[in-house]
Design a protein that fits this description.
This protein has 219 residues and is α/β, with parallel strands linked by helices. The protein has 8 helices and 6 strands. It is 36% helix and 11% strand.
C-alpha cells in the first residue's frame, strides 16, 4: 500500500476491523463525493518519510478542504497553489529563527524527504467540509502510528502545535524523544506562543546532540 517499511510495521493495523471500516467508508466517499487529498496521495507522508528515517514529527489536523490544496502532507500544498495562512506563519517563524527567505511555494516535500514526518491526525476530508471525516476512525489509526513512533529507539522530535495536537502528548512516553508544545500557527493563535517558539532551532539542537543530521529548513 505504501511501498516501504511502513507496510510491514502497519500490516496488522491494516487488517484490524476498525481499519477495514475506514477503508469501506472512504472508498464510498471517494466514489460519491469530492474528497481530498487525491486518493493516491492519502499516505504521502508515509511514502516520503520511511519509519527509520523519521527525525521530526509535525502533527496537523485534517487536510485542507479546498480544491487542489491537500496532497497528503500536513500543512503542505502542491507546487503552484496559494500558500495557506498557517503555512505562511510557519515560514515566518523559520525566517525569524534562521533568516531564510520566505518561500514562494508551499510544498514541503523536501522536508519530508529529510525525515520530517508531516502527519495529519485525520487523513481525508470532504470538499468544503472541515472535520467531516474526523469520526470515521482515522484518529485511532494515527494514534497507533504515534505509539509506533514512540517505541522507536532513534531520538525523534515531536512538534505539537495547538490544543488538538497537544492531546497526543500522553502517547509519547519514551524519554529518548523531545516533545515541543506551543500554540497553533493559525492567524488566530500564532501570537500566543508559536511566534518566537524557536521550535525549528530547538529540533536541530536536539538532533545535533544525538549525532543526527540536522534538518535544512530552507525551502
Amino acid at each position: 500500500m505504501i511501498g516501504n517499511e511502513w507496510d510491514n510495521v502497519l500490516k496488522d493495523e491494516f487488517e484490524k476491523d476498525y481499519f477495514i471500516k475506514i477503508k469501506k467508508f472512504i472508498d464510498s466517499e471517494y466514489e460519491t463525493k469530492t474528497v481530498y487529498p487525491p486518493y493516491d496521495d492519502i499516505f504521502n507522508a508515509f511514502k516520503l518519510t520511511p519509519l527509520n528515517d523519521v527525525k521530526v514529527v509535525i502533527l496537523g489536523q485534517d487536510p485542507y478542504h479546498e480544491a487542489g490544496q491537500a496532497h497528503g502532507l500536513a500543512f503542505s500544498t502542491p507546487e503552484g497553489r496559494p500558500i495557506p495562512r498557517s503555512l505562511k506563519n510557519i515560514f515566518k517563524e523559520i525566517n525569524a529563527e534562521y533568516d531564510y527567505p520566505i518561500p514562494e511555494s508551499g510544498c514541503l516535500e523536501s522536508l519530508a524527504k529529510q525525515g520530517v514526518f508531516l502527519l495529519n491526525t485525520v487523513l481525508t476530508v470532504e470538499d468544503g467540509n472541515a472535520n467531516s471525516h474526523s469520526k470515521c476512525g482515522w484518529q485511532t489509526f494515527t494514534d497507533n502510528v504515534i505509539k509506533i513512533l514512540n517505541q522507536q529507539s532513534q531520538p525523534i522530535v515531536f512538534m505539537l502545535w495547538g490544543k488538538q495536537a497537544e492531546k497526543k502528548k500522553e502517547l509519547i512516553t519514551n524519554t529518548n524523544h523531545l516533545v515541543l508544545i506551543t500554540s497553533h500557527p493559525s492567524p488566530f493563535s500564532a501570537r500566543r506562543g508559536f511566534f518566537g517558539s524557536e521550535h525549528f532551532r530547538l529540533a536541530n539542537e536536539f538532533l545535533n546532540k544525538n549525532n543526527k543530521e540536522e534538518i535544512d529548513w530552507r525551502l
